[in-house]
Structures are given as C-alpha cells and as structure tokens.
Specification:
The protein is α/β, with parallel strands linked by helices.
C-alpha cells in the first residue's frame, strides 16, 4: 500500500510514522508513506496557502490552488488514481469496518486541513470521502490522519505477527474484547480467572465469548443491538440481564 499525506506539518507526521510497530512495517516495505508539504506548491513568494473566507467569519481558510497542485504533482504519471480522504469533523466517523475496507486499497491520498478548513471547491474537485475520528474539533488534520494510518496499517499482512492480534480486538467483530491478564497470578489479592489457568481450550474460548458479550453489554450496550448474535449468545445475555433490560 502507498499512502500520501498532504499537510502543512510533514515533520510531525514523519516522526510518528517512524516509531514502533508502524515504523517497523514501513521499514519492512509493508507500506510506503510520503509526506508532502502543501506550502511547496504555492506560487506565493511568502509561501502562504491561506486567505480570509468570503464571509464575516473569523479565521483563515486554506486555498484551492496549493492543495490541487500538490495532488496533481503527487499523482502525475500514475496508472491508477489514489482514493482521496479529507480528514474532517464533518465526515463519517471512522470505524474498524471502514479501516478493514481501506486496508484492501493499493493507494490512499490523505488531505489534512488546518485553520478553518479548506475551500469547498477543492473538496468537490478531488476528495472521494471525508472521515472524522470523533465528534470534536482539532487544530488540524494531522492527528486524525495518523490515527487513520495506524488503524489501517496494523491490518496489513505482515505488520502484526498474525491476524489473531487484531481479529480478537474490540470492534473487529462488532463486540468489545474480553478482559486479559498476565503474570503475576495474584496481584493485590485479585486472582486471574481459573479457566485461563486450566489449559482447556474449549472452556477458554467459551469464557472469552461470554466475556466479550458481557463487556460490551456493560460498557457499550448500543453495540449489542447491531451485532450478529447466535442463539447461544442471546442465552448468555438473557442470563445476565434483569427484567428491566439492564445488566446485573
């Protein structure tokens, strides 16, 4: 996969993408990422890329031309146009399902806005999709872009040791993850559940499924409404839900 980021702060993105699991995946060639400074594509001698909006609104708005020139330069000569994402609080909220879908693409171009955002016309011209990481506003699109890249790259073949590393995690199957424990066996008089010490794989799998359901019911009950549940799952839920619909 190739990822291109159009940003005013390429160094900020590069520093993060060189670290930890994502950095190792990049070094192994599992994905390629290039950070492009939008200021390099302005014709303004002072390298300005923004101007005041046509309204009484305060603040500055990123201009079309530098962004469009950046996009044209980055995509010139390619056989296939990349999928273009604008990180925006107006976009659809990022989900694990969408991350899985994006991980199947060969090329992504991410536009990071700043100030009051970008001129609507360049969004209409080049953007395929707007994505938000939550219902709040940040000072720029760089942090959301890094969140998106991290969540997508970790599902590319070879980034993690095996698919279990993400398939068992929260949200992958629509439910939250089960509780996990490590050594010591007893800590502050709290003991690791006996079933996890038993070595009985079928019982452990059953316990994990039950805990996924109960954890979701307790912390994010709205996910239960849209999850694909078996009759056995419903039996477990009914066992732990009292008559008024709340968990015990």
């Amino acid at each position: 996969m190739r990822i291109d980021i159009a940003t005013l702060f390429p160094e900020m993105c590069e520093r993060y993408l060189d670290e930890s699991i994502i950095g190792r995946a990049k070094n192994k060639g599992i994905f390629e990422v290039n950070c492009h400074n939008i200021r390099d594509y302005t014709l303004d001698k002072h390298r300005r890329v923004d101007d005041t909006p046509y309204s009484e609104q305060k603040g500055m708005l990123m201009q079309c031309d530098p962004i469009f020139r950046c996009f044209e330069a980055v995509t010139a000569g390619r056989e296939q146009r990349p999928h273009v994402i604008y990180m925006s609080p107006q976009g659809k909220t990022l989900t694990q399902k969408r991350c899985r879908e994006l991980a199947s693409l060969s090329s992504i171009f991410i536009l990071c806005g700043h100030y009051e955002g970008v001129d609507e016309r360049v969004i209409e011209e080049i953007v395929d999709e707007e994505i938000s990481i939550g219902d709040y506003v940040l000072t720029g699109g760089e942090l959301p872009a890094l969140v998106l890249i991290d969540s997508v790259v970790r599902m590319l073949d070879g980034t993690l040791s095996n698919t279990d590393c993400y398939e068992d995690e929260s949200h992958y199957s629509g439910l939250l993850e089960y509780p996990q424990y490590t050594r010591p066996e007893v800590w502050h008089e709290k003991k690791v559940p006996e079933v996890l010490l038993s070595g009985h794989h079928a019982n452990i799998a059953k316990w994990r499924r039950e805990q996924r359901l109960l954890n979701t019911l307790k912390k994010r009950p709205e996910l239960i409404d849209v999850a694909v549940l078996s009759p056995e799952d419903l039996e477990i839920i009914n066992k732990y839900v009292d008559f008024d619909g709340t968990s015990e």
